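Example complex used in Figure S2.
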Amino acid sequence: MLLRGRPRALGAAALLLLLLIGFFLFGGDPDCELGSEREARRGGGDPGSIPGSPTPRVPPDGRPRSRGTAAFDVDPPADPGGHNSSDCLPPPPPPPKCELLQVAIVCAGHNSSRDVITLVKSLLFYRKNPLHLHLVTDAVARNILETLFHTWMVPAVQISFYDADELKPQVSWIPNKHYSGLYGLMKLVLPSALPPDLARVIVLDTDVTFASNIAELWALFAHFSDKQAIGLVENQSDWYLGNLWKNHRPWPALGRGFNTGVILLRLDRLRQAGWEQMWKLTAKRELLTLPATSLADQVWGRWRAVGAGSGPRCDATVSAQDIFNAIIKEHPWLVQPLPCMWNVQLSDHTLAERCYSEASDLKVIHWNSPKKLHVKNKHVESFRNLYLTFLEYNGNLLRRELFGCPCPPPPGAEQLQQALAQLEEQDACLEFRQQQLAVHRVHITFLPHKPPPPQPHDVTLVAQLSMERLQMLEALCRHWPGPMSLALYLTDAEAQQFLRFVETSAVLSARQDVAYHVVYREGSLYPINQLRNVALAQALTPYVFLSDIDFLPAYSLYSYLRASIEQLELGGKRKAALVVPAFETLHYRFSFPSSKAELLTLLDAGSLYTFRYHEWPQGHAPTDYARWREAQAPYRVQWAADYEPYVVVPRDCPRYDPRFVGFGWNKVAHIIELDAQEYELLVLPEAFTIHLPHAPSLDIIRFRSNPTYRDCVQALKDDFHQDLSRHYGAAALKYLTALQQPQGPV
Amino acid sequence: MLLRGRPRALGAAALLLLLLIGFFLFGGDPDCELGSEREARRGGGDPGSIPGSPTPRVPPDGRPRSRGTAAFDVDPPADPGGHNSSDCLPPPPPPPKCELLQVAIVCAGHNSSRDVITLVKSLLFYRKNPLHLHLVTDAVARNILETLFHTWMVPAVQISFYDADELKPQVSWIPNKHYSGLYGLMKLVLPSALPPDLARVIVLDTDVTFASNIAELWALFAHFSDKQAIGLVENQSDWYLGNLWKNHRPWPALGRGFNTGVILLRLDRLRQAGWEQMWKLTAKRELLTLPATSLADQVWGRWRAVGAGSGPRCDATVSAQDIFNAIIKEHPWLVQPLPCMWNVQLSDHTLAERCYSEASDLKVIHWNSPKKLHVKNKHVESFRNLYLTFLEYNGNLLRRELFGCPCPPPPGAEQLQQALAQLEEQDACLEFRQQQLAVHRVHITFLPHKPPPPQPHDVTLVAQLSMERLQMLEALCRHWPGPMSLALYLTDAEAQQFLRFVETSAVLSARQDVAYHVVYREGSLYPINQLRNVALAQALTPYVFLSDIDFLPAYSLYSYLRASIEQLELGGKRKAALVVPAFETLHYRFSFPSSKAELLTLLDAGSLYTFRYHEWPQGHAPTDYARWREAQAPYRVQWAADYEPYVVVPRDCPRYDPRFVGFGWNKVAHIIELDAQEYELLVLPEAFTIHLPHAPSLDIIRFRSNPTYRDCVQALKDDFHQDLSRHYGAAALKYLTALQQPQGPV
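Predicted assembly (1492 residues):
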């Protein structure tokens, strides 16, 4: 078969030749010919064969010349951005259809994790190949990204994690002003950190955005000569020329040097060439020869270059890029220059414009100014739009399969598909069943978060919300000075609005003990109990206060709860749920009672009510408000039908039943579960929390106006009771019996 | 220069030849060789030279063979989707970098306009070339799309409109079950309808989605032989084979026929070939030869094929596709078959899978099942995700320039850029100034809308809202049975949620006199007065009731207002604003008073208040509620500082001042403007409207908590007063004087 195919291929190639000739004679645009002409004047050559060749040159369009004719510019300091145009040559052949592409990224901390996700979204959007992501992370980023990818369930994406902290000793001897600088240096140790059988990898900085298919980048490996091991794009600034500031003495580099935001690495060749020894020797020698003052200068220079004072970022004294460039200067045969479009650098003094205004296609954008999206650049708006595209992109839409590539589905995906396929299209409660099956992408600790120091009686407030309750957060922070774990149900775009909301709020940005977990929206019903479970699972204190977002706790509640837990010895001995009595006000502007006595006065004056007194008294009746008025000590109450108090429980309490979505019965079922597991219900005499008014949610409106909706909630209740009987046997009888009693409105 | 370039080009081509040979010998994948082998067995040929050749064949990867060797399959009924793979050949050269590409789309009605916008978003996302869109529209679509593109301000996009109603007589003789079928037929008249100097155009159905750069499609014109004039993708179903149902007798076609969702048209050649006569002759002949019963059969068959009963769509008896296919059957030399990936047809009986599972790249998806996104297809989820990507995509992000293409900026864009560039980055009110300058994309009549029949005293309720007030709409519809014009401030994704909300609401979907105008979000402050102006400009009755979304009018208000307008002879003689007194309740569940008497009872009982009685009494004090209690006839009141009543005015009233964004003073300024223009303020004795409670908006929270925000609102007020003095001179003094008086809180 192979043989039979060849003559035809030769024929096709011959035809192509004819076509190309035709194109040049009749259809070629002047730019192409200018480029060819310029090249002809320059002549070509191997960078290795030209000692001191300052800046290897490549065309700007992602189409470097083939092995035998790689043309490099020999004029000293050339135009960064490879100003010769050669749109006329065909691109390298794409990699085989389903080839697995390898990508490595170093990532540490909360903010960097958010960046990586945006990068990965852009990557996934354009990719057509299976990917293997190698993530070198600290504990924080690993925790975030592991949960995220597990719940993202993107087909044909493998993830491997590598512990950055284990790699630290290999780079920590390099002078670094800042902790985070160390992570940047870890690119140097990838050849030894990644699996020994991994031969090729694309290494990416977290601040790059793809605008094209990464397979086209991968295809450039084919252009490496036998010795070349590192593919890099030239630096698009004059940094390494050392003429940006007075006394600016950069590390040695070939001409403008190379930028390490996007790297093609032949790991196998680097290992063979003794990379580890190579980079360490070079780094040590350079560090020794740089006089101390010069090093200080350089730090200062870099500070200025990266825009000191414009943000929290602090650059490393010595960067991986410095070391890469020093090595390349010494061993120029190592480097295969890549077309400038694969790393369009939007740094502060960028010279990238010549690259992107000439080539027809922009491939990767690199936000390598510390000002990031706020960098001064007359075209920044256009680049920003591309970045925002992926920042706000609904990541759920990336769960699309690769047609024709046989890849194992992500864990759980097959079962999910089967379960979804079994749903009846005619089922009146289809929407409920689909919502229950939805796997929501979860981004835990979306914003920087410092876990509270461990304390034996500490309590985390647990709640969930969507965009329309954001305005509750500041008040909640004022009322609850302790740790909180909040699940937010948001779209990707809303998550960014939320981020800006926190950043512009003095109250919120001052708090580091509030953990925000973003659960991405999918489906039409609010997955209330799934959200509660996410927030609950991320609480780090031994106790949790299970609240709702439209309640403000008494100012003293946090300290009072801790004291109560200690007094009641809630630890091992006693299995109890502490009830926090709930009230409500109908006024937005309302002066919050500072004590129980004040609360009782307001209650008597009719300014406050017990919660849902008018609509749903049975929800809180067992709390026994009359007894609470007089109580001086905690008192035990009995479960009764439809009871749904706000409680404090140990963190390992039963989870909420995720089948309850939308409005109705979601807390009631949880309290039944606590009672079935024999939690005592103890009402705290000085505790209270007050519900603030808000417009009814869309779910409650649907519940009230739509009989089918109510029927579906009833069906959920029935299912729940069946499961309860299965679980607890005769002990669950009382819940069923209670259900038979005549009831008020749900 | 041209000459100097050529030898080099020849060298490059020779090299390429060598490379290709190398690729086949060492790197080719077996699929390629299989394809080549199969082709070798088949042999090639010109479709024109094979009489009756049923299905011209093309490879699935967007890379047809070059002119001389176009290979076609001669086996009768071939695999749709062109199952031979030839990823091995390079794609045709892209069109010159900044070449203007021409696209024609036929579009009629509200729903089709929404579809076109999604299509255009996908097109713009991937395009790198300037585009000229030729839109053949009815009056509704033109109105919508003209406003949209005018406010969208996408660089390097020209729009031309053509009146579909003028073209109707040319196709209306063709039997059609349904009005909308006529629009489908208009593709046939494009050669005469489009400008005579337009030689090439890509014609698209509204239900296609791009997944790639349209320039690649345009490049396929280069493969047309000298005679070919129509580029089409083969049909990916057995429809034209006539074996789908018993008695199904389709129109004649070459094999499976071609699909007309994506067409490359050489208009110049069609004109030269006498296209108009050609298609009319063919259509008439076929219509004559089809016996009446067969035609009925066919209608039925098509009904079944398109999934009768699955949606509102009713297909035409004869489609443009039928006629195109009949012509091609007769004149096969006209057609250049296109690779299947350029029109992946997700019809009900699609055979497209072979196309998309083999090729590595999907170019255009065609939702040509009447079930659209709900079509049964095991891969539909993936296709849907691509569609949803653009449905929900923030269209503002497509306002990015084409680097390196000198295109005139869209009207107004340059002034906008200059104004934005003049803003001071350090200005504390920068956010306000940016928001004022924002040009919001506007999609008027987002949902189907029937304007009310003209009545001389009719009133439209005008209001604006964002997502968080959606739940007010049903109640509002119950309270106001007349026409409404509502501006909705939404993201693209929210607009889709809104659409679903209306579709699932029986109350809302029953109303066709409510016009919803989507204003797309941009910036951080709510552009309240810009929204009001959009809604106001779209009101079609002679009078408007300028309301807010959180108010419910008295049930009788609509008819009472019309009667009052008539009685007061508000038409030409009297320049007046009728005041509708405003009240508020603090309870969500509240029984709405059915008369003024009932309202007064509730007021006396303390269940209702006059609006903002506690926080901002001066806003409505001049209405004089005490007088209103007793009033039997309209009475005149005088303007006073901070007065902001809800009023009924002629549609040509002054617009709202768009400088007021966010919270504060936006209505006050409008009432001043009315007063300055000498509108009488007449309070109506039986009119009332009641504010329902809701949580405070984020803007009001910022106003209250942020002194800078308040300062900026103050600055806006000062600017406003300056302009007022400039406009009205001494007459505006009273507003400034009133401003000096001591005031309560804003």
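Chain B touches chain A through 96 residues (CB under 8 Å). The radius of gyration of chain B is 31 Å.
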